[in-house]
Amino acid sequence: MLAQIQRDHIDHVLAVSHSDDAATDPIHRSWVRCVHDYGLDPSRPTRAHIVEQAQLREHKDQIEEFLGVARTGMEQLYKRMAGIGYVLLLTDAHGIAVDFIGNDAWASELKQAGLYLGADWSEERAGTCAVGTCIVEQSPITCHHTDHFDASHISLTCNSAPLFDPTGGLLGVLDVSALISPASRDSQHLALQLATMYAQMVEDANFLRYFRDRWVLRLNSAWTMVDVSGEIMLAFDAEGVIVGANNGARRNLRPLQGGTDADARLVGRPLGEVFREGIDAIWRIARAGFVADRTALSTAGGEVYYGAVLPPRVAPRTAVPHAPVEHPVPAALKRLAGDDPQMQRLIGQATRLVNRPVNILIHGETGTGKEVLAKALHESSSRAGATFVAVNCAAIPESLIESELFGYTPGSFTGGRSKGMRGLIQQSSGGTLFLDEIGDMPLQLQTRLLRVLAEREVLPLGADKPVPVDLRVVAASHRDLRKLIAEGRFREDLYYRLCGAILYLPALRQRRDRDYLIDQLLAVEGAELGTNAALTPSARAVLHDYAWPGNVRQLRNVLRFALAVCDGASITPDDLPAELMAAAGLDAEETPPAPVAAGGGSEAAQLESALRRHRWNVTAAAAELGICRATVYRQMKRHGIVPPNQA
Ligand SMILES: Nc1ncnc2c1ncn2[C@@H]1O[C@H](COP(=O)(O)OP(=O)(O)OP(=O)(O)O)[C@@H](O)[C@H]1O
């Protein structure tokens, strides 16, 4: 039987969520989502939902290391809040309470109210509530009494603040709630402030843990606060390149030059491009010691911050460099780029990494040349005499990756060769193992790979003795691995092992050396086709100005296409695919189909028709579409496209 107050609440929620006026208040916006997006019905209050133990274990496993850091912060906060009747919840990014601190004396009331371990506070399940709405809005929020959507929660008061990981992905929510509270919403002001402050502290502790083997620059606008509060934190490597930025840094810092959003990112840039004083000033702060000296650093926006540098807390890889060491650039790396500043910087970093005993992670959009870079690193290194083994984790069917990578002994694997097989890891011993699309590696194999990297030996399927391997891994991904970690699809400890250094390949549209690439690729493709047709200035201008969603691979395909259809002497704009002509504002009459980039609205239809045209030959369809085979497989999986004989 519903009380009058609950019936009034239900009427109010329904009136607001069916009103024609657009909701501006975050609570009202959430009510609208509950009714229209999740199909929740306020007239049917539902009790709190607590997930099963096994499910809770899964949610906890995915953020295990973070839980340890968060627990310390929660215990400190609880000491301040317990006396006034509050309990604390830590949820993951799905809204499941993975940790809880409350008074045992009220255990049954708290459990019934959902203020308990395992409670599901996602908006879809629980309706408007501090945790769920905080996840959607990604900012701190109070949900007091009748702010809740569900009438069974209107006696509660809850205050939630989001927790972000070092790359800005949502990790979870810290929540401070009470069963009984004063009627006024204002009574929660301080509780929300405390939740926000402790969330920030937990986030910063997690940042320092995560980047424990890196240098960290802490900045504060008040010099007295630098040591106690890292308002802004940047993690950087021994080359002075930024490898991580906390929330404060992302909000407040911009590169000195670079206007567009894509150019505004901090990670991957040298510190010298963010502070007017340059990298030397930062190494000076590092050398002066953590407390002794603080130097003012000024930013693109003209703000002045005071800095302190924290050296790596575990196994420092290098001492503070006193002067940059000049390395000659190996030819294989040099020919990757012309005079593009981002590429030149990357080549400088790659040069310094060539013979360092660290694994390297390459980030870049599809077709930017990740494999080409991995191969150039290999060819430039002392491992060049041994094999470069490239494995595309997205292209090998899941059931085969394990045997392909780890190998198998005779008779151990149904469908395997009778003599057994040396796995790709073993084949790369002494050389380089290139793991492309590492984000697509199944979790269980990530665990095995981690073991191989840690123990430097591999155990083939069916074998009883491990085989030692001399491994260097270069892994690549076009996806944000930190996001995959937050979603529980990639192991954080494996990521940590793989990213001894991260190289960021710019997209072709950001590169200023397009003419260099055009000439290089034209020469290569021309040699293959036996032609030396040249570009007319107008055709070159079209190529130069195009946005290149498919990156270098697409440019290469377009040039191949143009060389094949041109008159043999010169390539004119008419020889270029229709898409480029349209982008350049030129009419394309009767122009054959263009290579297309992945990601369009009609992606599925386009892909299926290309596959049918090429009788399901993935390599041929990929070449026509200007995308790599891995992308074709990924898109087939995403759209559920199955070749006829496998349907
Ligand atoms: N610097 C370069 N010079 C010449 N050719 C290049 C360069 N970078 C890339 N290419 C060409 O572009 C194409 C795509 O390169 P690559 O396969 O290395 O990209 P990728 O980033 O690994 O792609 P994916 O994400 O799809 O695996 C290849 O044909 C390669 O030869």
Q: Care to describe what's here?
A:
With 647 residues, the chain is an alpha/beta fold. The chain has five domains: 4-206, Beta-Lactamase (2-Layer Sandwich); 211-310, Beta-Lactamase (2-Layer Sandwich); 331-504, Rossmann fold, CATH 3.40.50; 508-583, Helicase, Ruva Protein, domain 3; 603-646, Orthogonal Bundle (Arc Repressor Mutant, subunit A), CATH 1.10.10. It is 39% helix and 15% strand. The protein has 25 helices and 21 strands. The strands form six sheets. Strands 2-1-5-4-3 form a five-stranded antiparallel sheet, sandwiched between helices. Strand 4 (157-164) and strand 5 form a beta hairpin. Helix 19 (514-529) packs across helix 21. It is globular, with a radius of gyration of 28 Å. The two termini are 53 Å apart. The relative contact order is 0.06. The model is unreliable at 316-324 and 588-601 (pLDDT under 50). Residues 336, 364, 366-372, 436, 478, 520-521, 552-553, 556, 628, 630-631 line the site of adenosine-5'-triphosphate. Adenosine-5'-triphosphate is lined by residues 336, 364, 366-372, 436, 478, 520-521, 552-553, 556, 628, 630-631. Residues 336-564 form the Sigma-54 factor interaction domain. Pfam families: AAA_lid_14 (PF25601), GAF (PF01590), HTH_8 (PF02954), Sigma54_activat (PF00158). Keywords: ATP-binding, DNA-binding, Nucleotide-binding, Transcription, Transcription regulation.
Q: What is the name of the CATH topology of the largest domain?
A: Beta-Lactamase
Rough outline: globular
Number of strands: 21
Q: Describe the main β-sheet briefly.
A: 5 strands, antiparallel
Write out the CATH superfamily name of the largest domain.
Answer: GAF domain
Report the average pLDDT across residues.
85
Bound chemical compounds: adenosine-5'-triphosphate
Q: How much strand content do the residues show?
A: 5-15%
In CATH's first tier, which class of the largest domain applies?
Answer: Alpha Beta
Strand order of the largest sheet: 2-1-5-4-3
Overall radius of gyration: 28 Å
**What's the multimeric state?**
single chain
Organism: Aromatoleum petrolei
Domain Sigma-54 factor interaction: 336-564
Protein name: GAF domain-containing protein
Keywords: ATP-binding, DNA-binding, Nucleotide-binding, Transcription, Transcription regulation
